[in-house]
Amino acid sequence: MRQLSRIGLRLLLAAFTLLGAATAAFFALRLVPVDPAFVILGAARGDQVDISPEVLAAVRAEYGLNEPLLVQYGMFMGRLLQGDLGMSYVQQVPVTSLIASQVQPTLALAGLGTLLALVLSLSAAILTAGRRLPSGLASVLELTAASTPVFWLGFLLMLIFAVQLRALPMIDDGSLASLILPAVTIALPTAAPLAQVLRQSLEDVLEQPFITTARARGLSIMTVKLRHALRHAAIPYLTMIGFAFGALLGGAAITETLFSRPGLGRLLIMSVSNQDLPVVIGVVLLSTLAFVLVNTLVDIVYTLVDHRLNEKTAATPGEGAAASPDTRTGTGADAEADMRTGTGTDAERSGA
Amino acid sequence: MRITLPRRRLLPAAATTALALVLVSCGGGQSADAGDEPVEGGQLTVALRDEPVQLNPLVDQGSGAHSVRPVVDSLVWDNGDGTYSPWLAESWEVSEDASHYTFHLRDDVTFHDGEHLDAEAVKANFDFVVDPENRSTGSTAKLQPEATVVDEYTLEVQLEAPESSFLTLIAAPYFGILSPRQLQDDPESLADTLIGTGPFVFDEWVRGQSLTYTKNEDYAWGPEGTHGGPAYLDSIRYVFLPEDQTRYNALLTGEADMVDYIPAEYNQEVLDSDEYTSDSFLLPGVGYTLHLNTRQEPFDDVRVRQALLHGLDREGIVASSTFGAYPVQEYLAETTPDFKQDLENTIEFDPDLANQLLDEAGWDERDSEGYRTRDGERLSTEVPFNSENQLDQRTLEQVQIDARELGFEVNLLPVPAAEHSERMYNGDYGILASFQSESTGMQLWRLYGSDNVSDGETIGSNASFLSDPELDELLAQARQSADPEERAGYYGQAQELLPELAPAVPLHSRARTFAAQPYVGGVGWDYAWPQPYLYEAWVNR
């Protein structure tokens, strides 16, 4: 029940976040000193077009641009609440259908990118944690990957694997092969900080007494890492995934532009540059929604991973899991709890 | 550097000869293995820079015009030298003052939806652009053409004012003839589907990725001088690669059979390459020009404008900002049909003259930073520019450096594209830099004629706000001259006069260069709005 009301509160907050995002996007774009009528007439693309007063008047009337800004905002929010995002100023099609056509390619890119990032970060962290030299080496590589601009990284991958080696296609043709380079491009910078965080917390956990106990029982270091340490080290990793998702959205925009792939990121960049206000708001709303969803999901996963959160929230309802940095490195009590249950991770889950 | 095709038509043999000529003139190259004879079948993948924001060519002259030509035909074909050939119209008559046009249409043309092409169908297209509801901002709409059906295949068009370049405007893809059924019954669909009479039929547009056309098997009305029948290719697939480097890479990886808009930095390399066939066409018109706002200080003084015109080392600026890819031009690019070949009043780089003019204009003091002043006020101006365009930025930075030499402060102000146009219409700038291309001297009227000054009621493209009766008269005469030579004569006089008025500093012409894999043959040029013409292209893999 508590859990339900917490999720309910989360959803309410999410709804407010969305309305806030819509409002912020509306005013941010309308405060730019650009007449939307010019945008609608294609003047924003830099062509020196001639516009007759009749045409200008027709556009102003059709889009309600003669109304005061607050009235326009009211009209916009009214339509938005009915799920109507309006027509694209520039592309002359409904925003919803424009966005719908661009969701799938971005999902494919972000999906494969996330999968790669998870696989890379998990394996890099687990394989190298606690081993001095590999750990240091991996750390340097990760730092490099994390601090390399996505655009540059993608460009490098393109030059090596598409232009030089001709191993992979560069241009999107709908095939899985053409998805690989872009997906690696967004996966690497996402995986790097994830691996860093996970390794750090793994190494912290590995120094705990209960690990020594487990080792003393004759378990191999890999078994200990996978069965004991990982669960304890998972919380900061999960928190990081929530943040990484935001970076992934930004990375997708850059990657889509570089590889000239269809997708929401490219649509957003194009629409911002064209001052296509309804499309920008649509994409901003969708990204906000995705971000909120992922973080809510992460929040729920926390409680599955660490049961103490349920107990805590029972004591202080509303306190989110993200606000539990003390779970970061497995405290003494934590270690004892683990010793009590021995290797019984399954037992713990079934007891939930 | 002059890199243009001989103005020949598109017979395969002629095209091959032309290609060979270009290859030789560009310093070598091997003969293409596309062969001399067209090969049937196959798909041609063409990498383009700009994706259309919407397809309907009758609405604007923007990006759609780059990629709709295979689907739509025009009434006439522009030969690029001021003459025209029959296309959907078999013949036509022009009134002496170039304000009244009569078209006699072919009687054997069908649209892709089965509609028959007749005078009513063409009238529907003219009516569409005139109706303010349809928000057409193209050149044709501006002329307010009033179409009248005379009989089934005869159409008369009366323009609001004479326009001797009318045929060039309607020969361009942005007056491609669309199905009257689509225009009248389903206008909403025009944004993302096109039904024309062209050699290719619209197939699919995957936004952000590609636009595919398939062969029109029934096609039998190619422009005069072509083979006339169905296209050789089975299909054309345009892919949109806005990133210059990615687009160029697509040529290297072979993922594109043809790459259009080779970036300036690779222009010469591609033209010199043995591995690809390539061709380049200098885009006609007013080109890349700095328009000086004559309504504001300091450019309200003609001496200051002349000083900038002669005080900037245009050769040097253009050479370094375009990596030597594009040539310097006068007020019209030399490929413009009305360009005056024996122009006497050319723009010379003369810093002494420039300094003298600035002294005379009263800007003869210097401040602590070395800039000129008058009554304690610094000689300074502002250039808003679209920060996404690197070529613009490089060019303007060079201008800034040269102006500094004259003691003239030029402030660069990066703004988003939309704000750029807003400022343009409000006259909120000292200098406005823009690239303008159209295949006619008429562009001088659009850019420098007082009819096109924005004044709050009308919105025009005269960015310098120049209003000069003598120039206006010459431009009006040119627009009324149906005879191409007479027209060119008036436009020639205007070109001699412009350096005196100095409303702008012309800088470079841009080359549109494409490169193709050696197995691609038969690519020609559509001169009305210069772009590769793929009707007679083939692939021989």
Automatic annotation (TrEMBL), chain A:
InterPro entries per the UniProt record, alphabetical: BPD_transp_1_N (IPR045621), MetI-like (IPR000515), MetI-like_sf (IPR035906)
Broad class of where this protein is predominantly found: membrane
Transmembrane segments: 107-128, 140-163, 175-195, 235-259, 279-302
Domain of life: Bacteria
Localisation per UniProt entry: Cell membrane
One function term, GO molecular function aspect: dipeptide transmembrane transporter activity
Record keywords: Cell membrane, Membrane, Transmembrane, Transmembrane helix, Transport
Membrane topology: Multi-pass membrane protein
Protein family according to the UniProt entry: Belongs to the binding-protein-dependent transport system permease family.
PANTHER family with a match to the protein in the record: DIPEPTIDE TRANSPORT SYSTEM PERMEASE PROTEIN DPPB-RELATED (PTHR43163)
The name this protein goes by in its record: ABC transporter permease
UniProt organism field: Sediminivirga luteola
TrEMBL record, chain B:
Pfam families to which the protein is assigned, alphabetical: SBP_bac_5
GO cellular component terms, semicolon-separated: ATP-binding cassette (ABC) transporter complex; periplasmic space
Entry keyword set: Signal
GO molecular-function term, one example from the UniProt record: peptide transmembrane transporter activity
Matches recorded under SUPFAM superfamilies: Periplasmic binding protein-like II
The name this protein goes by in its record: Peptide ABC transporter
InterPro entries, per database record: Peptide/Ni-bd, SBP_5, SBP_5_dom, TAT_signal
Region of interest (Disordered), residue spans: 360-389
Gene3D superfamilies: Dipeptide-binding Protein, Domain 3, Periplasmic binding protein-like II
Signal peptide (from-to): 1-34
Domain Solute-binding protein family: 84-433
Keyword Magnesium: no
Annotated Basic and acidic residues bias: 363-380
GO BP of this protein: peptide transport
